[in-house]
Amino acid sequence: MEILHDIFALACVDGGKTGCALAQVSRHIRGASRAVRFRIVSLPYGSLWKLRAFVDDFKRAQEDAARGDDPNGTEQLR
Length: 78
Prior knowledge:
Blueprint: H1 2-11, H2 17-25, H3 27-37, H4 48-67
Helix pairs in contact: 1-3, 2-3
């Protein structure tokens, strides 16, 4: 699991595209990548609906982490 975390940390530096793609692979990968998915995020200027979608996704990830809905026991989002 530590190796996956390191891989995800190196991969999730493209403004959010890789993190979003990882979250869609499976529940296992979504949980394993949760701690690094939101490290670097890029939102287009003037895109209110994308900002709202990001905030909703981030809140959902925080709620999942708070509930312990993580089969891998990775870090919680802050």
